[in-house]
């Protein structure tokens, strides 16, 4: 009898903690169900195609942002790093360089800018918020200067196909595939490798991590390099998708990525959060915007409601953490 | 007056989910008494005090304050009744003045509507209370710039200014120097004379015997006993705390001391805290470092570990010259450091117990979680941490257990040299002897142990030799075996080296 | 265990969406779609886009079609991708016709051509694609010739005033937008046509862009006025941000009536600058007409009628003194057309 009571007690606790831990996923499922019922256009093949076409760049940025946040940092320049890398790739492609070289150049630009951010943060010991705010302006300015902020068209067919090749069905294109592969890799790194574990350690308490024998400076550079390369991929996908790019095309995406990551459980203080949660966060946001647009809600109202969703998720996250602290 | 009861807590029950933390706990404090309150980490005394202060709700039981039964205690009600709390981790706003801290939330206004503060009255009132506790700071001083001892006095002043009838002191002397402790005692005694009661929570026997009038002991969430301190011996108290007899607090088995292993020559930090330190340690040896707070011991150990950069000096391990510029280098050379501040410098708060223990020794790239789980479980057992699931966050453990996690983390390395900085600070009596035997085990295995401690009896109990620091230099050395039967003389000698030139 | 549960949940979420979509149900019956038109402007607010939408809505109503307007706010992230998505949505739904204002020439080609391939006529407006063959028709102001008109008129007036040299500023919302590029090109062409060789005595300063923030254009132009004492003329290419910003800057620098200001498109904002001469003259696009004509021609194409590949809507050159009366006429015309359900012909709109 006692055992049974214990089992029931355990189940009750599990349900509650299940809700607490996975609230983002639940919100996502609820939204999907709601929109499916409320609007007949939601689950159509063309809407899903649009959704999967539009989410990969901001989704990849979200994954990258989640890693940076877990490590205890932010990178406000991530959008421009991505566009810089993407447009470098565009130039290289237009010059006629072969595909592997173009991609390598793009990744290299992302990695370099990421390294630059990391070194500056460590060297000047400035909060990453301020520093990357600065570097974002620098990169934006340089990029704008060299391109006159004009749209630069792509002249290579293969480049345009990078993001838009259908895989099996029209709904699912190469950029969505790349996005899902990146999610899988990121989850693997964060959960199953030493690199991931160190990231949580550094984010949780950088000094304690250092005194435990982790080369924290080197680790931070590594994470920023990975983040820069992911941003580069996002940038390439944006440019490939539009058959060209302008320096400001990533505007606004980085803030969404950050909000999504935080909705999904990461925190500015570092050391907590998961890639899965962050992805659920960005999917929730995108589903939400997609649904609202379909329902014809005025776009300014859309902004208001989107903002409310973000605020609500952060409140839930705060309550969650407070509850776990008191127990 | 002396025998009048101020408050009593009886039959207190409290559970957190399935964990039953308090079982028929009780405590009775009289007016104007200094009541010592002891219990191992996890015994439930913090929980009971939190219930008294209204921070937690009791599940069952009675609280009677000055003859009136209190149905539901809240922090506001507790303050109103006169229950003051001086926490172990001080609750002050660093960037604000002393006066504003003491009167936070109840500043005197000349015009409340416009929010114009009556600073004259504020500072006058503050000065009154500061005087009451014998503090010499100015009401306008910024709290962040004060010493820990002074901060504590301010907390006491604040509690008094709230008309506290009883003040709960939670481990107040952990960060205080001996002189500050004496001052604290004078104040507590003065409070007694004025009719205030004090509840004194501490692990330090010496203090309990010096200061306490009556003592209540808890163990495993249960009330064990209350008696006059003068009726009890130290051993009796210890066995009530631990539930068993502790034969020997310092289980030192003789170890074989081998060849010289670590040699430090002319270690200097260039900042004036560590000035030209040289010493030698052998395999299987436990080398102690005594000295006053601030004499440079912690700084020297940090240099040795690479936590801070040394300006000059030579370190030789096993007859090889090594360069240590970071903890990564230190660990590569087999040195580990258990820092003094284990909570903030040793723990990764958001991570699980298992992760904290295994972080020092992770596989190269791909993690084998099952293997790591086994290793962590092994060390959890070795340091005797009572926990149901090591995947739980480390923040769910009590303070003492958290300390053990940090210890376990360092045991989980192939290090040859272990540096312990205040290894038993904040750890209760029962766990202390566990740690001593672990240290002893390591020495038996031929490791080299360096221990920094402010408790001379502890050093005399477990070390082979003791170096004494004085203002950044090593001023003297004693071999413990020479003073086996003359511990007092040894202690005096150490104090002499620590203070004289 | 918990990890597996999490991956399972994510997997289910994604799979659910894909699975249900694969059973791709088209949402509406064919009958509805054959009378539905998609209208995708860059934005639908403001003195330029709002009347345009109204014109389109009126035309659709007059001709018996349902107009679905899809757009997004100015500073929307991934705006291009969103609007491309709208075109694809219309194509998938097999609507009767699509009217779209391309945000960028090159990226909008593919989705428009895809629609055309499905025999859905697509008419571009406000800005055009590079290749005529990629769309059914273009309705709009020929921004180059509109700019040319403004440039010429401005040059004539300046010449008449005896101005032979100086600096000229150009202000717009977004330098990368095709409409802005064309207008600037036209202005300079018209200017040079009038001044001939003397045009080289004038210096066109770097174009100011303000992302529709008047405080930005104001700030930058004030800087120009201080730095260039010989600044004689400012061209505002639209829209509201530059209009307000330029007039504000001229006022704050005390140059009202001194520096000539030529603008694009009528808005009530100009009325404030008439008295102290902060606005000299404008060319006005007939936004309402553009909207109306787009839908009118789209329906013609649907019915299989022949229409021109490019359907320009004329601009009017209006001097400051005439602005007020012109504005009143304009608003009358718009309210007039809603009351008068019979009026379909664009010609009758000039008189009332």
UniProtKB/TrEMBL annotation, chain B:
One of its GO terms (cellular component) is plasma membrane. SMART domains: AAA. Transmembrane segments: none annotated. Residues 7-245, 244-496 form the ABC transporter domain. One of its GO terms (molecular function) is ATP binding. Coiled coil: none annotated. This is Abc transporter. It comes from Trichococcus shcherbakoviae.
């Amino acid at each position: 009898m006692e055992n049974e009571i214990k089992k029931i007690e355990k189940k009750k606790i599990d349900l509650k903690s299940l809700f607490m831990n996975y609230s983002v996923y639940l919100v996502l499922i609820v939204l999907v169900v709601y929109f499916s019922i409320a609007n007949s256009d939601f689950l159509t093949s063309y809407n899903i195609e649009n959704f999967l076409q539009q989410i990969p760049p901001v989704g990849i940025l979200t994954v990258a942002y989640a890693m940076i946040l877990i490590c205890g940092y932010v990178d406000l320049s991530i959008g421009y790093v991505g566009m810089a890398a993407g447009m470098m790739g565009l130039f290289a492609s237009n010059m006629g360089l072969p595909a592997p070289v173009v991609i390598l150049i793009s990744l290299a630009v992302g990695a370099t800018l990421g390294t630059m951010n990391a070194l500056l943060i460590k060297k000047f010991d400035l909060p990453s918020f301020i520093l990357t705010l600065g570097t974002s302006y620098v990169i934006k300015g340089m990029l704008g200067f060299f391109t006159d902020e004009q749209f630069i068209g792509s002249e290579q067919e293969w480049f345009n196909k990078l993001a838009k090749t259908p895989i099996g069905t029209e709904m699912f294109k190469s950029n969505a595939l790349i996005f899902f592969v990146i999610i899988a890799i990121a989850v693997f790194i964060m959960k199953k490798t030493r690199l991931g574990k160190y990231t949580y350690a550094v984010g949780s308490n950088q000094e304690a991590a250092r005194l435990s024998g982790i080369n924290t400076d080197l680790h931070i550079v590594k994470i920023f390099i990975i983040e820069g390369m992911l941003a580069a991929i996002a940038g390439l996908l944006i440019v490939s998708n539009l058959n060209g790019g302008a320096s400001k095309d990533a505007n606004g995406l980085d803030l969404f990525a950050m909000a999504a990551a935080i909705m999904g459980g990461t925190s500015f203080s570092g050391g907590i959060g998961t890639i899965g949660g962050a992805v659920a966060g960005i999917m929730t946001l995108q589903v939400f915007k997609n649904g609202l647009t379909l329902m014809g809600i005025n776009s300014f109202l859309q902004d208001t409601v989107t903002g409310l969703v973000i605020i609500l998720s952060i409140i839930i996250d705060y309550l969650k953490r407070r509850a776990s602290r008191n127990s | 007056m002396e025998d009048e009861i101020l408050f009593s807590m009886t039959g207190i029950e409290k559970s957190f989910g399935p964990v039953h933390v308090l079982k028929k706990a009780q405590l009775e404090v009289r007016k104007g008494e200094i009541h010592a309150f002891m219990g191992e980490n996890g015994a439930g005394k913090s929980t009971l005090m939190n219930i008294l202060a209204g921070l937690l709700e009791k599940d069952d039981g009675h609280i009677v304050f000055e003859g009136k039964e209190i149905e539901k205690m809240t922090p506001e009600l507790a303050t109103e009744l006169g229950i003051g709390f001086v926490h172990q981790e001080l609750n002050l706003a660093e960037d604000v003045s002393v006066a504003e801290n003491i009167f936070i939330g109840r500043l005197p206004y000349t015009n409340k509507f416009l929010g114009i503060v009556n600073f004259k009255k504020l500072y006058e009132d503050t000065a009154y209370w500061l005087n009451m506790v014998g503090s010499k700071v100015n009401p306008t001083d910024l709290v962040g710039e004060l010493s820990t001892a002074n901060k504590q006095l301010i907390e006491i002043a604040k509690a008094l200014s709230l008309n506290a009838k009883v003040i709960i002191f939670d481990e107040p002397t952990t960060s205080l120097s001996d002189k500050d402790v004496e001052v604290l005692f004078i104040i507590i005694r003065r409070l007694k004379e004025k009719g205030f009661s004090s509840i004194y929570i501490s692990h330090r026997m010496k203090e309990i015997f010096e200061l306490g009038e009556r003592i209540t002991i808890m163990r495993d969430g249960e009330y064990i006993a209350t008696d006059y301190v003068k009726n009890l011996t130290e051993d009796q108290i210890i066995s009530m705390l631990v539930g068993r007899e502790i034969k020997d607090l310092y289980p030192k088995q003789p170890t074989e001391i081998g060849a010289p292993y670590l040699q430090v020559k002319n270690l200097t930090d260039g900042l004036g805290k560590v000035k030209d330190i040289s010493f030698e340690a052998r395999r299987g040896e436990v080398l102690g470092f005594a000295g006053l707070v601030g004499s440079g011991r912690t700084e020297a150990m940090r240099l040795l570990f690479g936590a801070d950069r040394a300006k000059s000096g030579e370190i030789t391990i096993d007859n090889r010259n090594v360069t240590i510029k970071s903890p990564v280098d230190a660990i590569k050379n087999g040195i580990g450091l258990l820092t003094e501040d284990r909570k903030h410098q040793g723990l990764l708060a958001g991570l699980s117990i298992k992760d904290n223990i295994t972080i020092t020794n992770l596989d190269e790239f791909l993690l084998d979680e099952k293997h790591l789980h086994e290793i962590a479980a092994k060390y959890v057992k070795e340091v005797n941490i009572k926990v149901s699931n090591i995947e739980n966050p480390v923040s769910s453990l009590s303070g003492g257990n958290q300390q053990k996690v940090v210890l376990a983390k360092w045991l989980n390395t192939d290090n040859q040299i272990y540096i312990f900085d205040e290894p038993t600070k904040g750890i209760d009596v029962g766990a202390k002897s566990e740690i001593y035997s672990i240290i002893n085990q390591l020495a038996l295995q031929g490791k080299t142990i360096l221990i920094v401690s402010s408790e001379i009896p502890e050093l005399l109990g477990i070390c082979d030799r003791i170096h004494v620091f004085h203002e950044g230099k090593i001023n003297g050395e004693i071999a413990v075996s020479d003073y086996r039967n003359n511990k007092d003389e040894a202690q005096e000698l150490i104090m002499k080296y620590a203070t004289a030139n | 265990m918990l990890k597996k549960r999490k991956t399972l949940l994510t997997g289910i979420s994604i799979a659910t969406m894909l699975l249900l979509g694969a059973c791709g149900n088209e949402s509406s019956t064919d009958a509805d779609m054959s009378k539905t038109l998609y209208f995708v402007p860059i934005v639908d607010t403001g003195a330029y886009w709002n009347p345009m939408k109204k014109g389109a809505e009126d035309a659709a109503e007059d001709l018996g079609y349902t107009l679905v307007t899809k757009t997004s706010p100015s500073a929307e992230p991934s705006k291009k991708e969103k609007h491309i998505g709208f075109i694809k949505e219309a194509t998938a739904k097999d609507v009767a016709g699509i009217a779209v204002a391309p945000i960028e020439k090159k990226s909008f080609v593919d989705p428009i051509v895809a629609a055309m391939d499905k025999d859905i006529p697509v008419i571009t407006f406000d800005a055009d694609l590079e290749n005529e063959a990629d769309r059914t028709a273009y309705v709009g102001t020929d921004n180059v010739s509109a700019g040319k008109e403004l440039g010429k008129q401005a040059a004539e007036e300046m010449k008449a005033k005896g101005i032979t040299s100086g600096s000229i500023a150009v202000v717009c919302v977004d330098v990368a937008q095709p409409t802005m590029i064309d207008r600037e090109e036209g202005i300079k062409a018209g200017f040079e046509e009038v001044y001939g060789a003397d045009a080289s005595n004038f210096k066109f300063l770097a174009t100011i862009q303000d992302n529709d923030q008047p405080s930005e254009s104001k700030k930058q132009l004030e800087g120009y006025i201080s730095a260039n004492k010989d600044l004689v003329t400012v061209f505002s290419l639209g829209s509201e941000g530059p209009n307000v910003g330029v007039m504000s800057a001229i006022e704050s620098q005390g140059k009202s009536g001194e520096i000539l200001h030529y603008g694009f498109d009528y808005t009530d904002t100009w009325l404030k600058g008439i008295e102290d001469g902060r606005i000299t003259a404008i060319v006005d696009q007939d936004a309402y007409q553009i909207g109306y004509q787009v839908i009118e021609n789209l329906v013609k194409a649907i019915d299989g009628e022949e229409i021109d590949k490019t359907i320009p809507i004329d601009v009017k050159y209006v001097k400051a003194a005439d602005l007020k009366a012109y504005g009143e006429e304009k608003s009358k015309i718009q309210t007039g057309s809603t009351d008068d359900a019979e009026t379909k012909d664009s010609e009758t709109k000039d008189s009332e």
